[in-house]
Amino acid sequence: MQDETSAVEPGRGITREDLQLVIRRAAELYTAEADADERLSEAEVLRIADELGLPGRHVRQALYELPLHRDASSWIDRWYGPAAVIGTRVVPGEPGRVTDQLEDYLVTREFLQVLRRQGARAAFTPAEDAISNVARAVRRPQRQWQIARSRRVLVEARPVAEGESHVRVELDIGGQRSRAVTGGVIGGALIGIPLAAGAFFPVGHLVFDIAGDAAGYAAGLVAGAGAFGASVSAGLAVARSRFRSRMDGARLEIAGLLDRLESGRKLDPPPAPWLRSLRSRIADTLRPGQPSGRDTGGA
């Protein structure tokens, strides 16, 4: 007689969608019963995944993409966004060679310098010599390029399969976020002070005529504080919008770099439109058999 508690019928096929549900539910049950401080090594996780029939390549990629920090977010994190922008990708090549490619690009094109290199992990910071500062200002305008102006750039490549690496690029933009918050507060306060004064005196005078001294003073304070607070809030909102726009630009910049790395193209970003047009005209002029402007004129 078949066990009535069994949820699996003999010969029943499990779809991929069902497999995801089973694995997720099994993980929930395991988490509920296991010690909260219990830790598994990566090798143990890979062994369990292998027993479940999951490809090791995908499991390694999932492990590498786990968040490194799980600290409780502050109000700045919730309001403005995280202090780091992260991009990941699986690309062809061994980890050491991939990191070498990225290092060469970041140093020669983004004007960064190596802070530390350990195997396929490297940390970079903007070079502070005079020539690098001038080149960065000319070739990497602040509003368009975020990699060159990040406080730290962290690069890590790890193997996922033979001839393939998982790359993680992290930009530390905490300094830009701090400047955005400070600028929002200062800008809002500079506008808020005259607004507060403009609200304090009319409201206070109006209530003073009706309810007397104390009530007029209190009403003026409330009106002034409200105007000042609204101005600071507006300043913070404007600063948040600008900062998030830069975050979006940083994500696109990282994605473009990883796209070029994945496809095997040169890591340099596409040239400016005017430079591309100039190169095209020069190439047309130098192309063999191409008539010059003089030759095409009438006799």
Q: Could you explain the architecture of this structure?
A:
Among the domains are: 40-70, no CATH class; 77-173, TATA-Binding Protein, CATH 3.30.310; 177-252. A hairpin with a 2-residue loop joins strand 4 and strand 5 (164-172). The protein has a five-stranded antiparallel sheet. Helix 7 (174-211) runs antiparallel to helix 8 (213-263). It contains nine helices and five strands. The protein is 57% helix and 14% strand. By secondary structure, the chain is α+β, with helices and mostly antiparallel strands.
| Sheet of most strands | 5 strands, antiparallel
Strand content: 5-15%
Query: Can you list the strand order of the major beta sheet?
Result: 1-5-4-3-2
End-to-end distance, in Å?
105 Å
CATH architecture classification name of the domain at 77-173 = 2-Layer Sandwich
- The class by helix and strand makeup works out as alpha+beta
- What fold name goes in the CATH topology slot of the domain at 77-173? TATA-Binding Protein
Précis, in short:
With 299 residues, this protein is α+β, with helices and mostly antiparallel strands. 57% of the residues lie in helices and 14% in strands.
List keywords for this structure.
TATA-Binding Protein; disordered N terminus; 57% helix; flat; disordered C terminus; single chain; 299 residues; alpha+beta; 9 helices; five-stranded antiparallel sheet
